[in-house]
Amino acid sequence: MGIDCFLFDLDGTLIDSDGAILTALRRMEQRLKLRPLSEEALRTFLGPALKDSFVTHYHASAAEIEDMLKVYREGYMELGVDRTVIFDGVFDFLYYIRDRGGKTALATLKEHHLAQEVLSRTGLSECFDHIALDMGTGGKAGLIRECLASLDRAAERAVMFGDSPQDGLAAAEAGVAFVPLLRGEGFRRPGSLDGIPHVFSARTVKEMGEYIRSVI
Fold first, then answer.
1. Which sequence spans correspond to the domains of the chain?
2. 3-state secondary structure of 48
């Protein structure tokens, strides 16, 4: 049995949310009077879970993280949601998968309130057979396993698409094939794909769609 289950990350893979995320982070720094990070440091937030980045860059405690998430969420809703753009071709290949009898799922570590709002406003929520959101109980590999269980698919029949090394490592941990999207921040650094198993690498969203059409 070939691949018929297609799992996707959200930010940087299906949508361009870089500007929304960075704007919300700057607003959070201003409101909480945090030391502003450099632009380079701020861009490292694109991909990993927010809570992890808050600890790494702001040395935040558990209580501080909750306050930061609240303020970040408010800034994102106020300034960022409407700046989110779906990459060209995404709807086309999501519909194609379903037309061919395949299953689609979303596995994202984006803060779940924001993810739900973005999916609703963009119409993407209607394109997935299962949506696994981060509820603070596990990492990306756990979300991938949730998708497989919900869709009753073995790992061998699935492929995960993502734009960061964390996506690739999670796919490997869950036992599914991985296709990195190299267009964004996640794989910008030389060697960032080293040691991450992958069956194909897509430089653009168009190439990601071409790969999908070649395997289903």
1. 5-16+85-215, 18-83
2. coil
Measured distance CA(53)–CA(91) in Å, rounded: 31
H, E, C per residue of 175-202? CCEEEEECCCCCCCCCCCCCCCCCCCCE
Q: Quick: pLDDT tens for 173-188.
A: 999 999 999 987 778 8
Locus of tokens 């198993």:
197
CB of 48 closer than 8 Å to CB of 186: no
pLDDT tens digit string along 139-163?
899 999 999 999 999 999 999 999 9
Residues paired with 6 in a beta bridge: 104, 159
One-letter amino acid of 55: V
Residue 13 CA to residue 208 CA, distance in Å, equals 10
CA dihedral 177, 182, 188, 193 (to 10 degrees): 20
Cα–Cα distance for residue pair 53/45, rounded to 1 Å = 6
Spell out the CATH class of 18-83: mainly alpha
CATH number for region 5-16+85-215: 3.40.50.1000
What pTM value is reported for the model? 0.86
Q: How far apart are alpha carbons 215 and 22 in whole angstroms?
A: 35
Which helix (H) or strand (E) segment is 204 a member of?
none
